[in-house]
């Protein structure tokens, strides 16, 4: 279920809120290949199913940064923000990739709003904890703390 915030005051009221989970997203080899082409990261562990099948993960895996980049579309399932003129990614406080996402696996996003505080320029800074879960795995694919700025 999507949480909706209309304006900065409603964003501030989300401090501490558990935004739940996104839907599951399957990670296919075509997506991994396209990410490799865009980033220039053509390591065999991502692209060569035969060689990767003999490697430590038993098959190809998604790039960690591909997993991180998917936070953006998955987060839009969890939070819809209206009543602001601009929103920007301000940065990341931390990122870890505890477990690989095997090609053909499914991921989903869990999010919790850590804080929402005023910043100069009629805006707020929102800190969000993210966990990218892997279907059937006890360990997550990614844990990250992201910082966003929203301006009225």
Automatic annotation (TrEMBL):
Gene3D superfamilies: Hotdog Thioesterase (3.10.129.10). Residues 14-126 form the MaoC-like domain. Transmembrane segments: none annotated. It comes from the Bacteria. Pfam families: MaoC_dehydratas. This is MaoC family dehydratase. Belongs to the enoyl-CoA hydratase/isomerase family. Signal peptide: none annotated.
